[in-house]
Amino acid sequence: MALATTGAVIAGQLAGDVERILVTIVSLLTALFIAADPHDPASETIVQSDPGIQIDPEAITSHPQLQPFIDASTDAILIVDHSKVTAANHSARQLLGINIVGQNVRMAFRHAGAIERLSDPDINHTGHPIRLTGIGQQNQMWDMRIQSIGPGQKMVHLADRSSAQAAEKMRVDFVANASHELLTPLAAVKGFIETLDDPAAGDDPDTRGRFLGIMAKETDRMQALVRDLMSLSRIEAEKYDPPQTPVDFAHIVVDTVDQLRNSQERGGDIALDMTVETLSVMGDAGQLRQLASNIITNAMKYGRTGTPIMVSLAHSRSGAMLAFAVVDQGDGIAPEHLPRLTERFYRVDSGRSRSVGGTGLGLSLVKHIVDRHRGHLEIRSIVGSGTSVSVLLPVAPTDVI
């Protein structure tokens, strides 16, 4: 950034007044964009404009090259002259209002933190951001940077940090939830170990056998959770890398159903309806097997015993996608829970989920696998009737099968 700024200043000194203004503006914009990351060491660098330059907003808004460049930015950029907005790009007008040019900053921003920063002529503008909440939509978060560009003039740069903040919150919540999910069975195992260490309890074969059985169950639960966490990590690492290998998904579904029929107590309730013998997608065989197993296993856990679990696979109406669906006849899920079912560790009934051996990551894994395969996941449910989980995946091109 320092090299770019130095070049800009030298060019500005060699150019005419208008060119000097434009070069100064571009150098300041470049500095603001580079400094947009609060953790970037470059943000410590202060870019100073030539104190002899007085920025004419008219020169900016009317210039055929600079204005399109500024308007193309998704960040809001404004120029404030003695507490009055004198220029604003398209993003700024969308955020603060189409008529903000000419308004006092108090009317334009309507935000106490922003107004205080912009109205104080003595404040030392170093380019460091101030975090603002409440500009635009209620929960949006912005980093506002201000750079002096002339006597009484400031350039304001607003960068939306809502997505980054949401991602950070998800990360923190995920760590907290994963820790809780692991600590719960660990505490149970530790408690039983301490009980068995007591000679009075440890010498009773029935008590010992019961406690060891519970410890084994809790250990299995921890192993399942760690496996799912590792799977989720791998899938997320590959989410921008779509699979390039043709995989027969019909074979995966048949194989998964056969395994579940032989290994689960409700295996006999599975009814398979397939209109095709082979159906290939560009996919990761291991992940697609996990997808099919998770969806069918969920239906076996939460459907009522003795009721059918309908598993179907067919071409979509257009023929460009395959349609995989699993329908159970269970208690169903209330509408308010449906949008959150694919969140990590989200459970409609925590106690029941743990009692049937769920980790809270099954549908989250399914959603990430579907996304990586450029597919679509849909969950429908009627309370008292049951739940339907449908997946659409693109069919592999015929020239690669």
From TrEMBL:
GO terms for molecular function: phosphoprotein phosphatase activity; phosphorelay sensor kinase activity. Gene3D superfamilies: 1.10.287.130, Histidine kinase-like ATPase, C-terminal domain. It catalyses: ATP + protein L-histidine = ADP + protein N-phospho-L-histidine. It holds the Pfam family PAS_8. InterPro entries: BphY/WalK/GraS-like (IPR050351), HATPase_C_sf (IPR036890), HATPase_dom (IPR003594), His_kinase_dom (IPR005467), HisK_dim/P_dom (IPR003661), HisK_dim/P_sf (IPR036097), PAS (IPR000014), Sig_transdc_His_kin-like_C (IPR004358). Keywords: Kinase, Membrane, Phosphoprotein, Transferase, Two-component regulatory system. GO terms for cellular component: plasma membrane. PROSITE patterns: HIS_KIN. Residues 177-397 form the Histidine kinase domain. SMART domains: HATPase_c, HisKA. Its EC number is 2.7.13.3. GO terms for biological process: cellular response to phosphate starvation. It is an enzyme of class 2 (transferase). This is histidine kinase.
